[in-house]
Amino acid sequence: MIEIEEVDPLTAPVLIAAFEGWNDAADAASAVIDHLIDVWDAQVVAAIDPEDFYDFQMNRPVVGTDDAGMRRITWPSTQLSVARPPGASRDIVLLRGIEPSMRWRQFCAELLAGADELGVEMVVTLGALLADTPHTRPIPVTGTASEPELADRLKLDQSRYEGPTGIVGVFEDACTRLDFPAVSFWAAVPHYVAQPPCPKATLALLGQLEDLLEISIPLGTLPEDARAWERGVDELAEDDEEIADYVRALEESRDTAELPEASGEAIAREFERYLKRRDDSQTD
What we know:
The protein is α/β, with parallel strands linked by helices and 284 residues long. Helix content is 39%, strand content 20%. The chain has eight helices and nine strands. The strands form two sheets. A seven-stranded mixed β-sheet has the order 2-5-6-1-7-9-8, sandwiched between helices. Strands 3-4 form a two-stranded antiparallel ribbon. Strand 3 (62-65) and strand 4 (71-74) form a beta hairpin. Helix 2 packs across helix 4 (167-177). The chain is globular, with a radius of gyration of 20 Å. It starts with 13 loop residues before the first strand and ends with a helix. InterPro entries: Proteasome_assmbl_chaperone_2, PSMG2_sf, Rv2714-like.
């Protein structure tokens, strides 16, 4: 079983989880966790023993040299970290993992046992998928909740997806079975630029977390990285007439559809985020 290091009691913690692999197009979801670990100075408190869950021919260990000059092997694993965001009313548990090769139910059970030990009150899973969406428009994010009451309270839908699933779907199912309220956000990454990173999708997921947690998250260089990414894709499209025509078709389809990003409510949310960030920066 997973062992949790001794940690001071957490305040109404929320667990935010993302997994590398099938659920993580362009690494957009796992990049959110990496960013939060960095900006919130999160501390690792537990790690899954990889021996039981990973095929090391599929997820190979990495050899390198540590700060002391010693050769070390780093094994693929999944970790739980604890963060206490400044000014937040609740603490955060960050789950950064790799989709396991085997024993998915045991894997989820161990992680949720650790979450229970830390007092987690709600789970938020993040994912990213490839979709027919233009890189020049806001990245669509779909949000769902595990329970009708939670969906109503957070103004989210219940998932109606049917088909193959990855570890995120299995993890959400395990949450429901153990009565952990669960929310999931999925970003749609333009399929013609599937190579990581996709900072624009990472930013879109962070925006959803800000709304859910009602806090301001430091963004660092991500906004400029997203603009640079978009400029880079623009240049690639300009060099290929077929891709340029395809992007224009996607833009036309998107612009004529009913866009939640263009609603007055969405614009108001973005403005509120801007004001909160400005207030936080002036306070600092």
